[in-house]
């Protein structure tokens, strides 16, 4: 019996050919393909600017710096995310302030944001987890009322939408093209914005503060993307609609047939892109037992994330011992099943059969 993986790099002959073409062009580092990838990615998200970078983590960090976030500032975010979200805030010099989550969407609970605002708050950093967007009407209203910047962690949510607007188009967006993401380049990232000034700053921070070669207007990093990565990204963009449809169809099938556990829902006005298909193992069942059972049935699962950010060793010394009950509860209940585009009909049937035995 073949094991069903939780994710699988989705590479066709077209990606391989695109990489070979770059190899033969002699232009490996940031060049014309990166520029084209940026242009097409901006159009995909419905924004004015897209800036390609090395990965999603530095996309977040550059986005924060370009919005003026730094030492002494506070950034409101979710504790139920990949550590990169918090690390980017910490490396900008600011302090993350964690607000508990909504157990239906697993995203930051917008009702709790206002109580966390202090005179030091500079930005809100919502994470569109698993491919489902946050409550952006509420978050936008709060940001407008308090003069706060919005930086969206859209690393799992390329082309997800909220009331017809795409992820990364509400504030400054940060995307990841890591190998398992919905659109991948191996490693890679992108920043999106409609703000000319923020875009200009992002470009400078990406490459040593240089607009003109060897003239440095500000302090910067080397966070550039290679044309090799951009060439893969361009092919993946051509295939994105098809890959998205497969994820959506797979999630629809699982939602329709799984009866034994709490399945994920989609909020009105939202389009889910199903980076993860996440169930909740509750009602007295132990998640460890469920993981073992599915493992023996040949089904790989993922736990995103087993420890919430505010409980991680690396951050405890900085923020002390705080309690965020819903994030802590969800970190014990969530379990992601395979939903990726390479699943066969038989794979899906097997997943349903085994999960319904729980
Ligand atoms: C993948 C991911 C990141 C980091 O992206 P990298 O490209 O791996 O640096 C940040 N936040 C979230 C929510 C992610 O899923």
The domain tally reads 2
Fraction of helical residues: 25-40%
- How many whole angstroms does the radius of gyration measure? 20 Å
The biggest sheet, with number of strands, parallel, antiparallel or mixed sense and barrel status, is: 7 strands, mixed
From the N-terminal CA to the C-terminal CA, the straight-line distance is 20 Å
Instruction: State the order of secondary-structure elements, H for helix, E for strand.
Output: HHEHEHEEHEEEEEHEEHEEHHHEH
Strand arrangement within the widest β-sheet reads 1-9-8-5-4-2-3
Number of helices, counting only DSSP H or I runs of 4 residues or more: 11
Structural class by secondary-structure content: alpha/beta
Shape: globular
What value does the average pLDDT take?
97
Q: If classified by CATH, what would the architecture of the largest domain be?
A: 3-Layer(aba) Sandwich
**Beta-strand percentage range:** 5-15%
Low-confidence stretches: none
What is the CATH C-level name of the largest domain?
Answer: Alpha Beta
E-strand count: 14
Q: What is the CATH topology assignment of the largest domain?
A: Aspartate Aminotransferase, domain 2
CATH superfamily of the largest domain: Type I PLP-dependent aspartate aminotransferase-like (Major domain)
Q: Which ligands accompany this protein?
A: pyridoxal-5'-phosphate
